[in-house]
Amino acid sequence: MHALPNDHTGARIKRLRAERHLTQRALCDLSQIPYSTLTKTEQGILPASPYLIGAVARALRVDVATVTGQPYLAELRADELDVLISPIRESLDVYDLGADPEVTPRPDALLRDDAEQLLIAVRAGEIKQTASQLPGLIVEATTAAHAAGSTEGWLLLASYYRTAYDVTSKLGYQDLAAIALSRMEWAAERGSDAVVGGMYRYMRALTYLRAGQYRTGDRLMRMGLGIVEQAPAGRERDVVTGQLHLGAAVLAGRAKDWAGADSHLDEADRIAETTGDASDVHWLSFGPTNVSVHRVSVLAELDEYGRAAQIGRTVTMPKGWPASRRSHHFAELARAQMWDGALDDAFSNLLRARKAAPQQARYHQTVRETYDGLEAAKRQLPDSFLSYGSWLGA
């Protein structure tokens, strides 16, 4: 079930509930969501929070994407992004076929440069450019890895698979993102790299965060921390360890685990004081700034919207910080401000999210849910608000 014109998540929840012949009370009992919250969400009076979406999806035994309406096919077709998905899927399917005799890969140095440029492009918000180049490069790197059988070749292929995960998850194809992650693990195991193995667990845990399965996600984060400990001591290990703690903090926040969230944030903060800004290490954007923006996200997950908005306004992002991270932060800050009642500020940050990384913001669930919340508030907003909604396809 995908998004329909003028549809919203609450309306989809209502339809799914009706299909299962459940009353609102019954769904509240199954999901442990307050009755007034569910009824107002179904009516479109309240936007659907990530926690509510996850709880309802589990109760109805459907994917989160079924509740949110992802992928947003009409917008993908309009942007001519839908035609890029099938080639990515096909390139992921040939992982175990060995070297393709019709493919002559370039030297590893050139493939490595291209892999790095794709990582940079994704973080600059250039999703379409990356998606168009990615399939051919994956096929080339697959042949190169099988032909050489070297550690470097397998880890290079793992990097391309990571980019496939980045692209497909941002566009809402969570099933394909899961396949890309499994390919990343497959290549990383052949490269025998503990750091890449830890990164894989981090990214896989995020898929469980989106699915509302917080306990499994937390187990993966802890497993990742254990694997990274096997890597040689140094900045690279510290950065990935810190990023794992940030991911675990968000998981704990969404699970309403205050103590766990604070503990992971504090540990990430301690590590960031040592590493400083480490945006270039595996392009994880780790450092003091990333800890600050994650603190905003965690507070919002804990329903501390006022504190999240207050801290979010004080975050100063360094020059050159990845556009995708800036856009994500502005979206999270807008969500907190919307729930806190600062509607004008919330819309201003939705505009900033779009300006920083328009291709990402257009397909970002938080952006859409926040827009729906502002629209439901029925307070007069500038004419550009309706224009923004048209751009989103809302």
Describe the 3D structure.
It is a single chain. By secondary structure, the protein is an all-alpha fold. Residues 1-6 have low confidence and may be disordered. Among the domains are: 1-69, Orthogonal Bundle (434 Repressor (Amino-terminal Domain)); 73-192, no CATH class; 316-394. It contains 22 helices and no strands. The protein starts with 8 loop residues before the first helix and ends with a helix.
- Unreliable spans are 1-6
Strand content: under 5%
Instruction: Tell how many strands the DSSP assignment holds.
Output: 0
* Rg from Cα: 21 Å
Helix share, percent: over 70%
What is the count of helical runs? 22
Structural class: mainly alpha
Biggest sheet overview: none
* Integer average pLDDT: 94
Termini separation comes to 16 Å
SSE pattern, N- to C-terminal:
HHHHHHHHHHHHHHHHHHHHHH
Q: Which term fits the overall shape?
A: globular
